[in-house]
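Progress report, Aim 2. The chain analyzed during this reporting quarter is listed below.
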Amino acid sequence: MARSPYGNYGHAILTAGAMRTPDRVALTYCGEQSFTYDELNRNVNRRANALLAQGITPGQRVAALLNETLLVAEVYLAQAKIGAVTAALNSYWPVETLRDVVAASGCTAFVYDATVEQVVEQIKGSLPGVTQWIDARELTGDSDEEPPLAGFHDDPLALYYTSGTTGLPKAVVHTHASSLATAQIWLDVPRGPDSVFGTGAIIWGIGFPAIVGPALYAGMRLVLEQDWGPANFLRVVPRERVTHVSQIPSFYAALLGSAEHEGVDLSSIQVIMLGGEPLTATMLDRIKDRLPQAGVFSYYGQTEAPYTCMGRVDDGSTPLGSSGRARTGNAVRITDPQGNRVIDEVGEINLAGPHRMAGYDGLPDKTAEVLRGEWYVGGDLGTLSSDGVLRVLGRREDSILKGGVWSQPVAIEEAASALDGVAEAGAVGVPEGASEQRILLAVVPRAGHSLDASKLGLALADSLPAHQRPDHIVVAEELPHSQDASGGPGKLLRRGIREQYGHLPA
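Predicted structure tokens for the chain:
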């Protein structure tokens, strides 16, 4: 029996939109090019037919190292249509990591763009399993007809990689079905016929099914930039009248910590999605003071189960500090060390739904550790209220033990961020893994402010219990953040704070 084309990610995300609203603008690239849904679909078809002409076959694993955001969108969608499995490589990886990831991926073809030619030359000789090296500039076939579709439903669509904070990044297998389930994100968020989603180069990896797919699936206009840092954000939002954005709270610490945003028209922004880090009351207040018209949503998920929970936090419908409730079709629960479901107690966060990964590629033992029946259990701690509201407390390894009491660093960071003149704060326990730790707090001043560590310590002694009071405070120019291609700061790296300043409390 023929398989439905709507089970193919590329067809369901893009071709269906081209049939529904062919003349609607689907994508604007760096303010220079715009494509309707029909035009974008034809461009993707040309690349898909060119891949087939190169000999790429359904089920073949194709590594993709692409920096140019338009190429990412077109090549990923083209490979989805023809059933090739995309290994979504991170251009921020060191060359050695890139080589080892590709060697472990089972890829026999490698697509790249002009920005990474030198890197490709460095790794070619050490990857004998890769027999096809394809410059994406060559994928310009003449035919814009729909290619023969392959890859449907539970067939693998892509390998998306974890951050790799310990060891080699793990390859997370997502299927056409799980990625289509993720694409329904924006159906759960207010939007209109003129909604415009703005983003940058973070669309490689899990950012693709979490950002590009949902925007096109929902019929929005996707504004793709190469850089989505604060400076370009301030140029693009008024130019394109961007209405929807998805970032981490650290972005707004950087954006609002300087005076550059003052006087810039950001009135078009209607929805701000925030995840990846805790959103403090202080930061929410700063965002709403600057963007009073915007609804602020918190979300929670991981590469293995993206955007599982969501809730609006600025209007009282979802308590601040929580990540909302499970989205339609998804589920969340908290379990104790014995695996029993608990309510209003701290335990491990379990996520379930059709958006969940199929497993870690080539790692059956690791897969068995985190996939427990229908649930994904990834090591985050939290609580769940009786009415289903999830509060994420953090990673087990981030917990601080002082005075015989466990704390999550966000409580300390929130108290510090609320003090006048503090733009950002990061707290860690030192020494790492000790049965009794001291608390190291690093803070960054807001533009035009200076901070005195001793005065901050006195203020925090008044607002925090003894087991959460910092033992040493460092005033830093900046805190360490991951590089995630967003153009702004990535997630706060607490281990970097420990590595840089951990000797000081002693």
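The radius of gyration is 23 Å. The chain has three domains: 5-22+30-186, 220-396, 400-502. These observations will guide the mutagenesis work planned for the next reporting period.
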